[in-house]
Design a protein that fits this description.
The protein is α/β, with parallel strands linked by helices and 216 residues long. It contains eight helices and eight strands; from the N terminus they run βαβαααβαβαβββαβα. Monomer.
């Protein structure tokens, strides 16, 4: 059984890697965003509790998020293993998760960090641009339009860059995430379950490294 967390800064390729891991190892993909939406839509007690904070413009407390995670980890599709996406983000949440996985006898088997240098991440993230007409998203490095200057989806020729994709904003976002990511890596390194892969390779190579770690 594989119970896994992927760590990495924005733009490191966690989303791409997650999809391939789920397909290859048939794990339940548990995203905190999806979890919140489902619990609120289904009006579960924890969902309603989370909604009361969100409706008032407040952050959902760690304990409430942890209750949601515990609810989700008890569902049948996690019996073959799971990959957690978006939780934990802090060492406090990591400690809460440890308590949950002990109680449910579903302890983490692996934590994998996809490591990419800040310079490369800034290039990747600030290469994103969007079509003004239909909102299709492209990336100058990894996903340009098939015909230069022409949107694949609607044929539009006007593009723009969102404010949060501009290099100076990206740099700030990475700093904020690094402050959360580094203590988590230390936390799991001390537990002896952290592995690192080089995220500056092609997605295929990154997945090969992850595959080898998980197969062990």
């Amino acid at each position: 059984m594989i119970n896994l967390i992927l760590l990495g800064l924005p733009g490191a390729g966690k989303g791409t890697a997650s999809e391939r891991i789920v397909d290859e190892f048939h794990l339940a993909h548990i995203s905190t965003g999806d979890m919140f939406r489902e619990a609120i839509a289904n009006e579960t007690p924890v969902g309603l509790e989370a909604k009361s904070y969100i409706d008032n413009g407040n952050l959902v407390p760690d304990e409430v998020t942890a209750k949601l995670v515990e609810e989700r980890l008890q569902q049948k599709d996690t019996e073959k293993g799971f990959i957690l996406d978006g939780f934990p983000r802090t060492t406090v949440q990591a400690e809460l998760l440890e308590d949950i996985t002990k109680r449910l006898d579903k302890r983490l088997t692996n934590v994998i960090s996809i490591d990419v240098s800040e310079d490369v991440l800034i290039k990747r993230l600030s290469a994103r641009y969007m079509c003004k007409a239909c909102g299709a998203t492209y990336n100058k490095i990894s996903n340009p339009t098939k015909v230069e200057g022409k949107c694949d989806r609607c044929g539009g020729s006007e593009f723009y860059q969102r404010d949060d994709d501009k290099p100076e904003v990206v740099k700030n976002r990475l700093e904020v995430n690094k402050k959360m990511n580094t203590p988590l890596k230390d936390f799991y390194d001390k537990k002896g379950i952290l592995s690192s892969v080089n995220g500056e390779q092609t997605p295929d190579k990154v997945f090969e490294e992850i595959y080898d770690i998980l197969k062990k």
